[in-house]
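Quick question about two entries, pasted in order.
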Amino acid sequence: MNLDPPLQLRVFDLNCWAIRYMSKLRQERIGLIGDMLSQEGFDLALLQEVWSERDYCELKQKLVACYPHSHYFKSGVIGSGLCVFSRYPILDTFLYQYSLNGYPYMLQHGDWFCGKAVGLLVMKIRGILFHVYVTHLHAEYCREKDAYLPHRVVQAWELAQFIQHTSKGADVVLLGGDLNMHPKDVGIRLLRGWTGLRDAFADTEHFEGCEDGCTLVPANCFTSKEELQPFPLGIRIDYILYKGLSHFVKCDNLVTTTGTAPGKSIPYSDHEAVIATLCVKRRGEAEGARIRTVEPELVDVVNEARTEVRVGLHAAERQRYSNGRMAILALLLLLLQALMGLSSLAGWDSQHPFPKFSFSLLALLATVVLLVSTALYIFHTIEVKMLQGTEEQMRLALQALQDQLGSM
């Protein structure tokens, strides 16, 4: 008979929206987040969009008494923005950067420069081995014409595969972060279906906060009211997901922040925080560990995700073709100008020679076009290879799922 008392774990998750020189009242809000974390004394705080390492160091200094263990995940040009504060020792960490993450020439969005990734922390709490994951997927800038949907589906697939392959020795798996996907989107259904992760909002016994658990709401003074116009209640894109392997896990209580910080006129971020109280206890011998079964719906989800990847693949191939053609035309123009220059040196000048300034300007323009087109051709070639690889993985996964279903 198991007499060990259940473990109560309070988990905090927040997209901090802390972009230097761009996010409004960033330093003041980082201070408020630090004050709140120190007062509440959570067991684990999973933060995203802490883009400045200086902000992380300030939080670390302020929280060292309550959270003696922390880690900042570095990747990309400006960093992943992921960091974790914990009351319990962190035994090991690992970072996996997603293979696709938007486009470098989409400067107004900037996701490519962030190096979106998933961070893994290995922790042992009261003898229970936790694998904790924190992540931030590519943003959705336009739901009607979402050019980044194939990339986000690839990220969801890679996240699911990463969790599946790295969590086999864990007792409890926990994922928190800004997934930038609505609960019914193909990416979140693929992630949950493939890994078996449960949604804290859907499973909680008691919920307090924004209606439908939304974490991006029109009432927040930092959110874009125009973007949220189709969603009067807001959208839920921040999640705490979990599953127990050798242990049983349930969500006793889930809370989202609402409105401004206590005693202040501003909220902590443009996102609402998600706070889950998880109850973890060892399974009885009769219960045993749950054996993963294949659901027929998972085949449909993987098929749907594979279709989105194919759409992205065709778009990437068209972009690669256009850039390759442009590079060839620029190269031909440079060769033509070189021939004209050689003919001039040989004394074969025409009656009306081409003006030297215009000639040089055209050569410079052709060189710039050649360099840019070649760089984009290489980038989209890499994109094509990554999409092809993911599509092949999904094809093999579908075949394996269908074989398992056929043998049941």
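Here is the second entry:
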Amino acid sequence: MVSNHLLLEEPIRMSSILEPSKPNFFPALTKIVGTLGPKSRSVETISGCLEAGMSVARFDFSWGDAEFHQETLENLKVAIKKTKKLCAVMLDTVGPELQVVNKSEHPISLKEDSLVILTPDQDKEATADLLPVNYSGLSKAVKTGDTIFIGQYLFTGNEKTSVWLEVTEVKGEDVVCLIKNSATLGGPLYTLHVSQIRIELPTLTDEDKEVISTWGVRNNIDFLSLSCTRHAEDIRHAREFLSTLGDLNQTQIFAKIENVEGLANFDEILQEADGIILSRGNLGIDLPPEKVFLYQKEAVHKCNMAGKPAVITRVVDSMTDNLRPTRAEATDVANAVLDGSDAILLGAETLRGLYPVETISIVGKICAEAEKVYNQDLYFKRTVRAAIKVKASVIICFTSSGRAARLIAKYRPTMPVISVVIPRLKTNQLRWTFTGAFEARQSLIVRGLFPILADPRHAAESTNATNESVLKMALDHGKASGVIKPHDRVVVCQKVGDASVVKILEPEE
């Protein structure tokens, strides 16, 4: 049963719609994950993306080698220092992805109503009559009448670069298909998707493990996006693997739900994962189109109830080539916010799109507008209720693990939550290190949370003057950001012993 929590707080005044959006240090509570790639890897462009509202940078290893992504990441580090904007790093695995291999890289034109053979023999040249695939079990997995979808940018829906096939015959290891639409495939690799079948490949492949244990470890990744998560066991296996890689035992694992099998096991996956990414492009192939919205609403609602981030993909595809989204896309972004999404993930729009900075900016503005009419009454608890009642401009939460701040954010306050992460000292018997950086960056995907790192000399549960200096730092940050103005009310949530204390402050000039 899908909860109806989309009702507006109050009727919309038409005059308010025409008012220009006011600039804000926090452009939106909803976070934006941007995929960095060929069109978004220079220091200048990444700086623009950070300024526009990107808080998590996604590195998609479905394409590009580790050296390419490392150069991009080094540029990200420079951009972070330049803009003074904190940004987390997400590694997206390839997973059990089926691909058509075109070693010649020449464009291949497929004609409607013609036949094409899919073969596991990768030594053969790709032509309009024969397409080599990287999976020897395809002929055992499909049957006559099954639908296969192929494209370089698989789920854009562009009929000129994507092709629908219908299986007409299985001959040994080869699969004979009828081409349903004319299309031209360009480039060395095209993704292949077969609707609603089980692919007998591991979710975390050997190639994925190699990338994680080298590139991931070197860069202390904050998030692992586990592509094509199908069972809770996939998450447990990935977590066990990360636990062997030093600091990566702190890395959060987001289950990327891409097919019906993942949806069927959603509840169990949600229990094990740190967050969920709904890969709507893939789901749009695996599900009837009229069912996608229903699964989205139910999945996001379950994430909200569990207090775990829900991330939605594929919202403004048209902005890959255009400066403005379509009306349907703008509404789709707003509805994702009204459904309760924590973050919007931009893929092709920023990876190879012509307007990555503008896309992030526009998506942020749409999110901010939707947040103004979100029904908060269904989600508030004590801290949030106090903040709403006194019309606070911000909530400040002291935390070490980040959990307290995430619990507040779960109830969707109308104002930003400044999460003051207090570092803790730990040792492995050989050296002392401070925790806190991971916890701060991992807040960057949670709706409404904006982390800052406190001085490690200040204890998280202290009641002495040191805590007052941490609070002053948070207030000064809020004032400098423009989110706290003279005589604004501020709600402070602080743990003292086993109790949580909520204070209401009214800072002076």
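Reply: The chain has a mean pLDDT of 86. The chain is about 35% helix and 25% strand. Hope that helps.
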